Automatic annotation (TrEMBL):
The keyword Nucleus applies. SMART domains: JmjC. This is JmjC domain-containing protein. Pfam families: JmjC (PF02373). It comes from Piloderma croceum (strain F 1598).
């Protein structure tokens, strides 16, 4: 998987991505909140310069998850984010997202610590992918049920800060061993105040 690309440069200053940046920002839903210059985005009021955090966009590219180990392991972000699926091969259904509410994320961390017999935050370590059996155990033991979203081409998924989530590229419709490919973009943003715990999906 190619993750957080470009790794050490701004997306909007790196060819060929710089040519796409204006169009991408123009297509961003709820632009006042989600664009880097949105008037409700706290990040737009931070000082300009090298010390400013790079909130994206960043590109992620992955092949189909044939081994059921996850295209992106379970993790959480310190800021709100949106992700748009910009490419998927014709045989693909897109990407499957598993997202936990912020309050359930705390319980999931404790459950994983017991299950994996580990110290620290296993979600922060980004080394674990929850299988369907794990999700069934979470429901059976703690009555925790995540939000499940199937993201298809050109759809946006919004991820609130602090919500644990993982992603798996779906199986192809017809040929299971077909090595398909997806490309997505993520942008991070800061919204003042407590955020709603709902998770939203929007079409580009």
């Amino acid at each position: 998987m190619l993750q957080d690309w470009p790794p050490s440069a701004l997306f909007q200053a790196t060819p060929p991505f710089c040519d796409l940046h204006v169009d991408l920002m123009s297509a961003t839903p709820v632009p006042g909140f989600t664009r880097s210059d949105g008037r409700f985005n706290v990040a737009s009021y931070t000082p300009k310069g090298d010390a400013k955090s790079d909130l994206g966009p960043k590109m992620y590219s992955a092949t189909k998850d044939n081994e059921n180990v996850g295209s992106t392991k379970i993790h959480k972000d310190v800021t709100d984010a949106w992700n748009v699926l910009t490419y998927a091969s014709p045989a693909d259904k897109g990407a499957d997202w598993v997202l936990f509410s912020r309050k359930d994320t705390v319980r999931v961390v404790k459950w994983l610590q017991t299950k994996l017999d580990c110290e620290g935050d296993p979600v922060h370590h980004q080394q674990t992918f929850l299988t369907q059996a794990d999700l069934a155990d979470l429901w059976g033991e703690l009555k925790i049920r995540p939000y499940l979203i199937n993201q298809t081409l050109n759809q946006f998924v919004f991820i609130p800060a602090g919500c644990a989530h993982q992603v798996r590229l779906c199986e192809g419709c017809s040929v299971c061993q077909y090595q398909s490919h997806i490309c997505s973009l993520s942008v991070y943003y800061h919204i003042p105040g407590e955020q709603p715990r709902g998770l939203y999906q929007s079409r580009m």
